[in-house]
Amino acid sequence: MKYGLALHTSSPALGLAIGTTTEDVRCQTWDLGRETSNYLHPYLRDFLSPQTWQDLGWLAVAHGPGGFTGARLGIVTARTLAQQLDLPVFAISSLAAIAWQLPQAGAIAISMPAQRGEIFGAVYQVSLDRQEFTTILADLVFSAADWDAQLAQLQPSYHHTVPQSANLAHTVAGVLALARLEYDRGQRPHWSLAVPFYGQHPVINSAVASSILALP
Q: Which of 52, 99, 119, 168 has the fewest CB atoms within 10 Å, i.e. the most exposed one?
């Protein structure tokens, strides 16, 4: 079975994960700060062992939100590897990876500070067995008032989490797991589709949103 390799560089730490299944995963993180660009490639090479590049079947990368320079570094690395190895690349939201690794199921709202007092926010629906993961409100930059308004529409049945640390590398296992869900369903995204998060407009799954709002 081919391995999946995930990179998380959208925060001040570097996170790498590799595995063939959700149970067979090896992860490691390094708090590198501004030195990530200098150490990413040698750390990635050393981390890959005992596997080889030829053992990989797909790549995953956190595309943000977070530090744009760091996210771009991960995206460029993943795209370059994918071109050389002829592999698909799954670009995964940093917020989605956080939601995936929480113990809660159901509607999960994730937010983290952006610039100028704004907020990165998203809402997901997660099944208890972690076999289903649906985006209700995709990543977007909100004003504080607009984010509060979004949360008000979800009350009372949702869980809201704000990461306590700016270092998100520990959620690289979530990046790998979410990419595997898509890979197992036959998705094979071309490397050119992997781009950093720019604060694009959200995509709302209206059917799921309606079911959440209808919960008692």
A: 52
